Amino acid sequence: MANSITLAKNYTALLDEVYKNASVTSDLTSDPAMARAGTNANEILYPQISVSGLGDYSRSSGYTDGSVDVVWKSTTYNYDRGTKLTVDAMDDQETFNIAFGQAGATLQREKVAPEADAFTFAKLAGITGISKATPATYATADAFLTALLTAKTKMDEDEVPEENRYLYATPTLVNSLLALDSYKSKEVYESFANVKKVPQARFYTAINLLDGKTTGEEAGHYAKAAPVYTVTAAEPADWATKYKEYYTVSDGVYSNVTGETAPSWAAATYYKKTAEGGSDINFMIIHKPAIIKHDKHVVGNIIAPASNPNSDAYILKYRKYGIVDVYNNKVAGIYLSHKA
Known about the structure:
Blueprint: H1 2-22, E1 36-37, E2 43-51, E3 68-76, E4 79-88, H2 89-93, H3 99-125, E5 131-132, H4 141-157, E6 165-169, H5 171-180, H6 183-189, E7 194-197, E8 207-209, E9 222-224, E10 228-231, H7 239-242, E11 246-250, E12 253-256, E13 271-275, E14 281-287, E15 291-303, E16 313-326, E17 334-338
Parallel strand pairs: 5-17, 6-7
Antiparallel strand pairs: 1-2, 2-3, 4-16, 6-14, 8-9, 10-13, 11-12, 11-13, 14-17, 15-16
Helix pairs in contact: 1-3, 4-5
């Protein structure tokens, strides 16, 4: 049994190391001391602090009394995901004991870390009140640099501290800025606490977390959120004037109705977009103290074949339960730029 325990420890250390190397948002994890358990099991409390301003000073009576108000705000955990991997003991042995270790490492590198990043960016991008640039595609490094200066100015005007601002951008944009090799670009680049390249595949304004069970979602993981179109069962009152806001579908592709005049109404032919899909993110600037990123429970249990009552196989059970959110009074600490 000692060998099994040692093996489990080795696998767990490997999984932890791979996650840290593969995630681009791990450095945004909040200080656990800034959160505490709420009344309910799925609840987290965080402090929101405010103080009164200066008052007149009197040479006879001294200072005007001020106040400090500390309120513990409540929110609920919004991420609860997990999986179970099984590798037959002989499959592991016949691959020189690497099949199970590699499966776990691959899970962390290709599934856990990308999903954690994608969820973090999508959740922050969906927060009401954050600063947003006009949707655009930056064709040149100069255009990207201009957009960064605009973002920087906006955050400066909103009095977001320069310390602990993190820039996340696609590799294409970051590399273009580095290639620009100008004084201005270097000054802007070096003004951030950290600059991280984010692959576009995990950089969307909205995602769908696949449940691993429903037809079409058996593989789990996540996908860029697609727009939702709903068929209009009855002729809408605004059809004659706003028909171009409706869609037709052909081979799964939705297109706006065109023409100089409204076509004849036909039920089950025209659709209305009832939910926007995710957009590709160009870059995000995140002031770390503005966000709550807390993992309440992360576990990767290893079960050796000798302890597996169902089969002669290794089992890895992995679960991650946590939260990504923004402090209510610090939404200015997030700046988003995405494509149209």
